């Protein structure tokens, strides 16, 4: 199985790299390539990849990928960024996130019939967003800077904000051996490890006889991440919150290190994400989508994408100085990111009574999100570009 997975990933990666320039200009998407490729190569189609949700490689890859995602997300949003430009992202995070969670829970309860506890658990899993599936929005200069900053900071922080809620609700649903004080200890210890390790390492690096040369600077951040991962596993601290706290701490205390690590870290994280998306695609079968999910589940998935986040952000942006186009773009580009994939796998392995039903709904929303958001990002970016060109032309010819 390992050989088949490696060969499949290598081929898909090669194709993804070769079409990346065209994908940057069209509706083609690397994420969709790996999702569809995993589906076609998996048991639901050609059967070249044979994986199940209980395979160690699935949980191990998902865990490592999410750790990397949260570490790099934290590196994007140091405390200075949050202090200097917090107003718009704060609206999306402190009001938009809980409203999205609540609306999703309401849809799950009344449409699918989930109990309230499991409905809020599903809402917490699907609340985080990920701009990787809408890269043309956050990576294009023609898109207004405040909109790119809003989506970038929001997606960088909301994974970490949603995780404690997921853990607490999962424990309340009987899916964790850690209850009460033990769960709180795991969360607090994870955050503590994520702060203390970078502080010590960066303090040592500032000593004259221990400074790293410029070419090795990216590996300093990697070593911090690996130390946090190892210590969290050894102490049973929450390694995901440890990763997120470590990323924020490094971004805050080591601004130069953050810049040096940016490209290298993004590439490593992208590789892990794409591998996990391919495996996620291989877990999906036609029977999974059309036999195990009722019609009400499809209605729920559509409402979760088309109503929950847009309505939540519409309320959050009341009084905000955003144009209508910027508001609509922010409301639409709330792709369900990689964190939701891993949270769904955690639920599937948790042993709670409704784990299968929750996972099926999570998987459906993620699939629809990857297909829809990854196919519309370039279109929206071009619209902003045409708008800027029209404004520039009007300025020249009053």
TrEMBL record:
Protein's GO biological process: proton transmembrane transport
Compartments it resides in: Cell membrane
Predominant place of localization: membrane
MF-aspect GO terms: antiporter activity
Cellular component annotations (GO), alphabetically ordered: plasma membrane
Membrane spanning stretches: 44-71, 92-113, 119-139, 160-178, 184-204, 216-233, 270-289, 295-318, 330-352, 358-380
Superkingdom of origin: Bacteria
Cited Pfam families: Na_H_Exchanger
InterPro entries, alphabetized: Cation/H_exchanger_TM (IPR006153), Na+/solute_symporter_sf (IPR038770)
The Cation/H+ exchanger transmembrane domain, residue ranges: 13-373
Membrane topology (UniProt): Multi-pass membrane protein
Keyword set, alphabetical order: Antiport, Cell membrane, Ion transport, Membrane, Transmembrane, Transmembrane helix, Transport
The protein, known as: Cation:proton antiporter
Source organism per UniProt: Paenarthrobacter ureafaciens
């Amino acid at each position: 199985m390992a050989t088949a997975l490696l060969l499949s990933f290598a081929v898909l990666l090669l194709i993804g790299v070769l079409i990346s320039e065209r994908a940057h200009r069209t509706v083609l998407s690397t994420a969709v390539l790996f999702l569809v490729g995993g589906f076609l190569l998996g048991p639901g189609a050609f059967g070249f990849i044979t994986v199940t949700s209980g395979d160690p490689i699935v949980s191990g890859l998902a865990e490592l990928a999410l750790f990397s995602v949260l570490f790099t997300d934290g590196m994007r949003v140091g405390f200075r960024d949050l202090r200097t430009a917090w107003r718009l992202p704060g609206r999306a995070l402190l009001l938009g996130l809980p409203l999205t969670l609540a609306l999703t829970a309401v849809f799950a309860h009344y449409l699918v019939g989930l109990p309230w506890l499991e409905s809020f658990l599903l809402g917490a899993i699907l609340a985080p967003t990920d701009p990787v599936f809408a890269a043309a929005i956050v990576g294009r200069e023609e898109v207004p800077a405040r909109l790119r900053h809003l989506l970038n900071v929001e997606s960088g922080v909301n994974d970490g904000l949603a995780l404690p809620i997921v853990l607490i609700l999962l424990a309340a649903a009987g899916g964790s051996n850690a209850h009460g004080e033990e769960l709180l200890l795991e969360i607090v210890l994870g955050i503590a490890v994520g702060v203390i390790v970078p502080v010590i390492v960066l303090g040592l690096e500032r000593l004259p006889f221990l400074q790293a040369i410029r070419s090795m600077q990216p590996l300093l951040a990697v070593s911090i991440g690996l130390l946090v991962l190892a210590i969290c596993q050894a102490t049973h601290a929450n390694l995901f919150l440890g990763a997120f706290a470590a990323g924020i701490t490094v971004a805050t205390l080591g601004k130069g290190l953050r810049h040096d690590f940016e490209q290298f870290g993004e590439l490593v994280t992208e590789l892990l994400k794409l591998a996990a998306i391919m495996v996620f695609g291989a877990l999906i079968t036609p029977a999974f989508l059309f036999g195990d999910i009722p019609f009400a589940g499809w209605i729920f998935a559509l409402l979760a994408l088309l109503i929950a986040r847009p309505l939540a952000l519409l309320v959050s942006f009341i009084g905000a100085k955003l144009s209508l186009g910027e508001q609509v773009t922010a409301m639409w580009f709330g792709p369900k990111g990689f964190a939701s994939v891993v949270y769904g796998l955690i639920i599937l392995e948790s042993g709670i009574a409704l784990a299968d039903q929750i996972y099926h709904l999570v998987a459906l929303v993620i699939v629809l999100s990857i297909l829809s958001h990854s196919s519309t990002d370039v279109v929206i970016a071009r619209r902003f570009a045409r708008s800027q060109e029209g404004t520039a032309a009007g300025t020249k010819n009053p």
